Amino acid sequence: MGKALLSDGADNPVDLTGATVTISIAYGRYSYFYSPTRRIVSNFPCFVTDALLGEVEYRPDPDHLDPPGEFQYTFEVTYPDLTVQTFPPNTYLPLIIRTRVGGRPGSPGNP
């Protein structure tokens, strides 16, 4: 997945100085209201790589990328004053996870 730039509604970078950022990934075939119960990743820590530009990086654990399919994700920012903001607000971003080269773990020929 890599890096993402978090921005406000006017496309200005969000200042992440002192903030913590997490990512949640849910099955993509569920509505916004139901997908949190169908998460494959929930509030996993991200790295703030450039606070002033709103740049974050998600380094997934290998089990975060299984099973393959269509998913949705959001970032949640907790600021130093403990206010919380979700990016993007009121929606999810699409994510497609493909079967890794060599197949899924435990499949024939792939221990």
Q: Mind explaining what this structure looks like?
A:
The protein is an all-beta fold and 111 residues long. It has a single domain, classed as Sandwich (Immunoglobulin-like). Helices cover 0% and strands 41% of the residues. Strands 2, 3, 6, 7 and 8 form a five-stranded antiparallel beta sheet that branches. It has a three-stranded antiparallel beta sheet with strand order 1-5-4, with no helix packed on it. It is globular.
Q: Which regions contain 5 or more consecutive residues with pLDDT less than 50?
A: none
* Overall geometric form: globular
Major sheet: 5 strands, antiparallel
CATH second-level architecture: Sandwich
Outline the secondary-structure elements:
Elements: E1 2-5, E2 20-27, E3 39-45, E4 47-50, E5 55-58, E6 69-78, E7 84-87, E8 93-97
Antiparallel strand pairs: 1-5, 2-3, 2-6, 4-5, 6-7, 6-8
Q: Which descriptors apply to this entry?
A:
111 residues, mainly beta, Immunoglobulin-like, 8 strands, globular
Give a summary of the structure in a few sentences.
The chain is mainly beta. The chain is about 0% helix and about 40% strand.
